[in-house]
Model the fold of this input.
Amino acid sequence: MLQEAIKAFEEAIGREYTLTSDAQLERYHYSTIPVLRVIDAVLLPNSVRDVQEIVKIANDFKISLYPISTGNNWGYGSANPVRGHNVIVDLSRMNRIIEVNRELAYAVIEPGVTQHQLYEYLHKHRTGLMMDPTGSGPSCSVLGNTVERGYGISPYGDHFAYVSGMEVVLANGEVLRTSFGHYENAKATHTFKWGVGPYLDGIFTQSNFGIVTKIGIWLMPEPEHFEACYFSCDNESDLGPLIDAVRWLLLNNVIRSSVNLVHRNRVLTMLSRYPWKEMSGKAPLDDEVSKSIARTKKVGAWNGVGALYGTKEEVRAAKKVIRRTLRGEVARLNFVSDKALLLLERFQGLFGLLLGMNIPEMLRVLKPSHGILRGKPSEVSLASPYWRAKKTPPAKDINPAKDNCGLIWFSPVVPMTRENAEEFISIIQPIFARHGFEPCITFTTVTPRAFDCTLPILYDKDDPDETKRANACYEELLSECMKAGYIPYRFGIQSMAELTGRKDVFWDVVERLKDALDPGGILSPGRYSR
Amino acid sequence: MLQEAIKAFEEAIGREYTLTSDAQLERYHYSTIPVLRVIDAVLLPNSVRDVQEIVKIANDFKISLYPISTGNNWGYGSANPVRGHNVIVDLSRMNRIIEVNRELAYAVIEPGVTQHQLYEYLHKHRTGLMMDPTGSGPSCSVLGNTVERGYGISPYGDHFAYVSGMEVVLANGEVLRTSFGHYENAKATHTFKWGVGPYLDGIFTQSNFGIVTKIGIWLMPEPEHFEACYFSCDNESDLGPLIDAVRWLLLNNVIRSSVNLVHRNRVLTMLSRYPWKEMSGKAPLDDEVSKSIARTKKVGAWNGVGALYGTKEEVRAAKKVIRRTLRGEVARLNFVSDKALLLLERFQGLFGLLLGMNIPEMLRVLKPSHGILRGKPSEVSLASPYWRAKKTPPAKDINPAKDNCGLIWFSPVVPMTRENAEEFISIIQPIFARHGFEPCITFTTVTPRAFDCTLPILYDKDDPDETKRANACYEELLSECMKAGYIPYRFGIQSMAELTGRKDVFWDVVERLKDALDPGGILSPGRYSR
Done:
């Protein structure tokens, strides 16, 4: 059956785009989480028509397809399917930027368009528009991250919220267009997301109901003026009041970017590698050692970053409000404009003396994070997976999956109150400790009312024992947090069954929708479904 | 069959809540559009359990149910079902405000909660939170408007965008909870709308897939400072450049409310009745007469309204930017704070002299529209349906459907460019003229990239000939605008077939979802479906 299907795929999209040899398939197995899936073949369609042909053949031969955009879903399974014996549909060749509308500030893109590619296009063509990059780096797919409901931290950070108009190849080979896109001559497809009638786009995110082949995404006009805002607290117990202040700033729309509250440990994973020497080869990281390294690097217990976008007078007004609101809650508060960053770079020594800061060290993280807030994708977060690995991240084109680094993402949603944050920390801290890891917490404000708490489990994947403990740590975190009501916003391929397994009307409905749209069950079996 | 079903309904929810007499059913027939539907009965459930019982009985006896929240869908069919011989499920008794969370700024409400009720609650309990009212007035349902994807004009105007967590009674009687609500102890149900897995909420808006019995809605904190912004142009041809300026202000987030650009004719319908005398009994309204009345009332050709919310310094900064941007594009630009409005009221004569304005006349519209921007529902728009009727709107509790006023809403979406707006006007103007009506255009910025153009067809419903013409006018508007690609964001019950009738994968998918969720087809047959 599979062999016949492969012959049919080869005829449909060409032999060179139907991969079956071990050497060709190898890179699709790369993963930062401890999984290994049998992949039967990889297909590389170049067009919607190719994708339509592929699903028709899959239906005929009862083949399970697993579409990926670029396959860099690091920490959640990368390109690996949820179940074994799938044929991967790699959409990376479909990487056209179909349209960029400067006047109405949107783009229409295909799945293969990477963050780097979109950034370069917007920049080179002087469109005056900026994208919102997610932290996963330049090589990742914009569409892939969006349909997985990933996020960035600029004001357009909630990626799916900024989609208007989708094109989806259904399991039966038909092409669905949403918003007004299914009406001839429709004018407002990419400017009004709801369209008319049931709003369907949502069911094609975090699901296996169709293959999304195009999306319209809204882009933000480059602001006249920009300033990043950095602040930090000295004590871990300062978090509570800080949360109250940040929530006020967001609910009152003073800050329109997300705010990241980053724990000391997490900053260290971005600045350096695990301090084996200081720890005499032991793990997890001791609090005292963490604090002492943080001191030398001028890192606070909690470190905040946000940004202001607007005209000069608007940014000035917002800064005043932020200063007033954070006064007393933070030990340090700095605003960094583009110009200030340039000066800081040029006169590192001088500023180092004046501010008592390690400026070169600071710039290593500051510059790329400034860039991300300004719409420029960066690899700054990609060094973390090398934290415990006995290898060094390359200077560029970092691919932690290829390098077999250990990273499992756990990313529950926590309401933005001090009580919730504190309860949440009290649940996860002992679990990390029990399994020999240090919690590296970031609280990211994904709405003005909720944090996504991204918790990487960073481990040495070349060490079988540590890998086992990492997995056990993840399992316990998931089960305890689900029990306490802190549910992850996104799941890795290893735990879909835990998500959907219980008696639950929600997942019953998902099953009924799946049967209606993909009765043969050919698309991504088990992905956010039973 | 129906008689047996009614007996079962009576047993389930009580005889007094099962209405069948003509007198009891009369008010459900009231409508501002020319339709008349046979209504078999009306059920008034009081709880989710009641609703579950009702759908079970409906399945047993193959009864078509038509749920309404308060039934004030004026201009789109009011409480009338799309097809005849439905049993209306009137959810107005389910009017509990389940929760108001001040810290996280949200409320959880049932379908019967009216705009007035929510406003009063927030106000009386000094919650420091404000709602976004839609223009349809105090008696309308917040939930009903939201699942119909209605909007208001404050920064939280896109009502469905601000929903987090739904409860839906399915056609099989099961209760679906979205966001994280289907997990026990879930903490973030009303603070993170996407939940995990396919985002389902959208398919329960503008659809007939389930009965929404609860929603979480986000509320805006009362701003420290507020100023409404009013501007106007003298010439109709000023619209193009004005659109460019407004789009810039919105895309750059200077104005976070919607902006309404209201044509002179539309303002006149809110200020007064049709000038039969000046027009010597003729219709449609002559341009010269319209202009001359507008002159005496100091109404411009295009009249803009928006608002600023923030701290004093932020509002001041935004005002500066608005002044700079609108300079040269508008003839008049005024900012009105709460304090200014109070002063204006107190010293009407003085200001009239100073500003050369008819202040009392102005206040009649200014005060309620100021209120709407501040989160207070108002009846200011409800007088328009009396424009051509030979009767006077009551001083309060206006119900244009009950008074048999003629209003058909036509509300297509137009991308926010001058070319689109001008093309759109060139299409609709001759159609209105041909049928003997004056176009009363409002362009509302429903996103920073698109207008919803709400066009009321105001007619005398007591005049059979005018009613016929109104209907023909609507039909031609709909067909011509659909052809040109300007699709309405929302449809009246009279034209669902035109929406879904053609060969269209989108409506095929909707049909498959409907079959999956409501195989008996008991819920709102024909509503946004075939």
